[in-house]
Amino acid sequence: MLLSAIIVGIIAVFSSWKPSHLLTRTWDYPIVTGTLVALAMGDPVNGMQAAAYINLAYLGWITAGGTMPGNLPVAAVFGTAMTILSGADPSLAVGFAVPFSLFGILTNQLTMSLNALWVHKAEEFLDKGNITGMRLMNFVPSGILNTLVVGIPAFVLVYFGAEPMQNLLNMIPDSFVEALQVVGALMPALGIAMLLSFMGKKKIMPFYFLGFLLTVYLKFDVMAITGLAAVMGVVFYNTGFLDIKPKSKGA
Q: CA–CA separation, 80 vs 17, rounded Å?
């Protein structure tokens, strides 16, 4: 469990540490971060299912105009870890993730505020021509700060949290668990609805319902539908069926 706790702590730091997003922005997606946590904790199946539920809940969430409706990396790491530690059904992952997501907003505000201090120090190094010092101030202090506010709590949760979380789960009334299951079922639907609210166009919506029919009535799996969608996308793009192919300059 010590090794798992260390790895989860590292995942929590890198997923919340903005410089790591220069390597990949997939840290922002709970399905990716939660899956890594699940692998680190040795329960990939339930963990990936929990991460998928969390990802669906936040599918249509965006940080527009400086607003931050939730901290997705924190929700993914802590929500998935809590689900695995407590042995809860993956559908309850959203109920675990939402409080941690709101907690993540506070940690993000704290780190963003304190990181402003390092920027001024980096400018001082730059004025003196010390490029190495400037680079260190851009990466090292923010990494240490993320380790303190996110990494260590994630480590503590995984290393010490199994038995306390199980006891806490056993103390929860069945009616409350059922309520969490209902919320967990509604949140993914809300996330999809939010996504469709700004993606829903007359030319695109028929394909959404086509995918629904293929899944529900013809029992196509996700890979089959994805392959079919890719083929249709290439054909429609090349034929200009949906008027999405760029027009040539000579036209």
A: 19
Q: Could you write out the DSSP letters of every residue in 185-197?
A: HHHHHHHHHHHHH
Q: Where exactly are the structural domains of the chain? A: 2-199, 201-251
* Nearest one of 156, 139, 71 to 109, comparing CA atoms: 71
Give, as one character, the DSSP assignment of residue 217: T
Burial of 244 (0-12, 13-18, 19+ CB in 10 A): exposed
Structural contact between residues 230 and 207, judged by C-beta atoms closer than 8 angstroms: no
pLDDT in tens, 213-240: 888 888 888 788 888 989 988 888 888 7
Other CB atoms closer than 10 Å to residue 211's CB: what's the count? 16
Q: Where are the alpha helices (DSSP H) in 58-173?
A: 72-86, 93-127, 131-146, 152-160, 162-171
